[in-house]
């Protein structure tokens, strides 16, 4: 189990992280280092900086992420249903219709409350 | 191969975990080499295809037909200074490209190139592909925030909102495949598409899942941030988006990982909807027409089909880049939330009902359009209609009739 699938995937991911860091270390060793204040300044189309970038951000992005969590959990519930669909038969189809119907009500609510509008 | 390595290691009297670790290193080495070669080829191909579409010559100085251009660019980027200013958060600024880069190559290990050549076989393969491919957005958001640059921040935030919006149609349309094949194992999904004598027509893209295929392809182009969905790095408005402040090797890593994930997504489209490693005539050509049963030769044919089909979809993505304009953020979000998500929810049920009808009759699921039966033809009609709606909806995004922005009416205030 651990040495076949999930453990191997995790080890590969760690190795990939190490590989990426290794690339950066090699580049750091061989690349020139000649900083100067003008080069190090943040790029803003050649203009003098107009305040920092760590500012308050539009709330719409967060609204969409809240909605995303709803639907992501829904899809996580749907995956086991999809695999077991052959065994569940008609009952599974009807139950999932109800489940998705309730969640679709959430989408309709968000739509009606104009949470999906960008302006 | 893993067994061989294990025997070798334990034969020397060394512990078993060492063989596991060595196998992981060997596997990652193979994955990284294959991945980088594919990326180097794809970058050249993209530049040549774009040049062909705009009637230029493309790179033609370094090596014959510019074949060494990408290598030269890579070496140049390696020797360039990597600038980190005092305004940037050093640690997060460095970790951004690392987190973006790491998952994109691991994806290669999950994709079945032949029935044996799979890095990791796991029963939840499809789920893990989505988990890994959605990790890279964390890297984009990190680097956008750590850059302390307004363009980068906006690019990172746009990327996050886009990735989460298109993740849902992507997963829901792949759910149709899981229902049809009854498994999340990528190899089982490929095998399930090769039933019956219909070849090309029994693959899922036509037989039962054309809606899923179209939605999945649109969403996968959005997931890898390519035109027409490349708002995170819209160069005409955001300079370069989330990688504005990056230079040298860190920039090269963003570049590499973008193309690596394009390859992985195209390979996933092939595995889920285009019969994976099987030939378009059904089964394998060498086995059917030449009577070859040699595993090595058959394996070579399988790899050839997988790679050819994958490059077909990569080529398709490049043509899209050469022909379509970029969308506005409000169009992008509305298209996903108001159009793709309701349709893909509906599609899950259509597929489930279709599978139910097939199962009660005890018929071959992938017999496709060759079965003449009124019930099936009604479902085919519905599926075809939905495919048409999705395609027309996608086309409408690029039409001339766009609603004006509120507050910007032609008559003035």
Number of domains of chain B: 1
Q: What distance lies between the first and last C-alpha atoms of chain B, to the nearest angstrom?
A: 73 Å
Tell me which oligomeric state these chains represent.
Answer: heterodimer
Number of strands of chain A: 0
Task: Please tell me the overall pLDDT of chain B.
Answer: 82
Low-confidence stretches of chain B: none
The whole-angstrom Rg of chain B is 23 Å
| Protein chains sharing the most extensive interface | A-B, 68 and 88 residues
Residue share in helix of chain B: 55-70%
Determine the fraction of residues in helical runs of chain A and give it as a percent range: 55-70%
Sketch the topology of chain A as an H/E string, one letter per element. Answer: HHHHH
**Structural class category of chain A:** mainly alpha
**Global outline of chain B:** globular
Shape, principal axes of CA atoms of chain A: flat
Proportion in β-strands of chain B: under 5%
**Structural class of chain B, please?**
mainly alpha
Largest sheet of chain B: none
- Give the helices and strands of chain B as they follow along the chain: HHHHHHHHHHHHHH
Low-confidence stretches of chain A: none
Give a written overview of the molecule.
The complex is a heterodimer of chains A (119) and B (413). By secondary structure, chain A is mainly alpha-helical. Chain A has one domain: Up-down Bundle (Methane Monooxygenase Hydroxylase, Chain G, domain 1), CATH 1.20.58. Helix content of chain A is 67%, strand content 0%. The radius of gyration of chain A is 25 Å and the shape is flat. Chain B has one domain (89-397). Chain B has helices at 2-11, 16-53, 69-78, 90-106, 125-146, 150-181, 186-192, 204-207, 210-223, 248-273, 285-290, 295-323, 329-361, 374-396. Chain B is globular. The chains are: A mainly alpha (119), B mainly alpha (413). The interface between A and B is large, with 68 and 88 residues.
């Amino acid at each position: 189990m651990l040495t076949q699938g999930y453990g191997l995937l995790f080890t590969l991911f760690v190795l990939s992280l190490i590989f990426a860091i290794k690339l950066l270390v090699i580049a750091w060793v061989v690349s020139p280092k000649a900083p100067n204040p003008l080069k190090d300044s943040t790029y803003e189309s050649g203009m003098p900086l107009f305040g920092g970038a760590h500012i308050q951000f539009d709330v719409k992005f967060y609204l969409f992420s809240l909605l995303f969590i709803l639907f992501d959990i829904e899809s996580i519930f749907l995956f086991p249903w999809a695999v077991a669909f052959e065994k569940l038969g008609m009952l599974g189809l009807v139950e999932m219709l109800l489940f998705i119907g309730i969640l679709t009500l959430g989408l309709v609510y968000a739509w009606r409350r104009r949470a999906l509008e960008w302006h | 191969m893993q067994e061989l390595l294990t025997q070798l290691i334990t034969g020397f009297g060394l512990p078993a975990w060492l063989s596991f670790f060595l196998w992981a290193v060997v596997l990652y080495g193979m994955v990284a080499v294959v991945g980088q070669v594919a990326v180097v080829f794809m970058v050249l191909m993209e530049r040549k295809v774009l040049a062909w579409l705009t009637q230029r010559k493309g790179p033609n100085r370094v090596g014959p037909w510019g074949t060494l251009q990408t290598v030269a660019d890579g070496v140049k980027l390696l020797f360039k200074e990597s600038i980190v200013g005092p305004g940037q958060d050093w640690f997060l600024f460095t970790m951004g490209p690392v987190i973006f880069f790491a998952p994109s190559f691991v994806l290669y290990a999950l994709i079945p190139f032949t029935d044996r050549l799979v890095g990791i076989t796991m029963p939840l393969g499809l789920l893990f592909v989505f988990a890994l491919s959605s990790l890279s957005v964390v890297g984009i958001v990190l680097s956008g925030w750590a850059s302390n640059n307004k363009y980068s921040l906006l690019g990172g935030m746009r990327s996050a909102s886009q990735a989460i919006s298109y993740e849902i149609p992507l997963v829901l349309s792949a759910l149709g495949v899981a229902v049809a094949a009854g498994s999340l194992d990528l190899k089982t999904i490929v095998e399930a598409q090769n039933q019956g004598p219909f070849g090309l027509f029994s693959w899922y893209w036509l037989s039962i899942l054309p809606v899923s295929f179209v939605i999945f392809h649109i969403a996968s182009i959005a997931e890898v941030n390519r035109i027409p969905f490349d708002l995170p790095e819209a160069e005409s408005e955001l300079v370069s988006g989330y990688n504005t402040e990056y230079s040298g090797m860190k920039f090269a890593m963003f570049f590499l990982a973008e193309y690596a994930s394009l390859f992985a997504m195209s390979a996933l489209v092939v595995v889920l909807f285009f019969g994976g490693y099987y030939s378009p005539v059904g089964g394998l050509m060498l086995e059917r027409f030449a009577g070859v049963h040699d595993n090595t030769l058959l394996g070579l044919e399988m790899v050839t089909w997988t790679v050819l089909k994958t490059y077909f979809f990569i080529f398709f993505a490049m043509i899209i880049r050469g022909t379509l304009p970029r969308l506005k953020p409000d169009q992008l979000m509305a298209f996903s939330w108001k159009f793709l998500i309701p349709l893909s929810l509906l599609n899950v049920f259509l597929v489930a009902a279709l599978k139910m009808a097939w199962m009660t009759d005890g018929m071959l699921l992938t017999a496709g359009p060759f079965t003449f039966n009124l019930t099936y033809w009604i479902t085919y009609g519905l599926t075809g209609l939905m495919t048409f709606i999705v395609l027309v909806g996608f086309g409408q995004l690029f039409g001339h009739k766009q609603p004006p922005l509120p507050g910007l009416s032609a008559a003035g205030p």
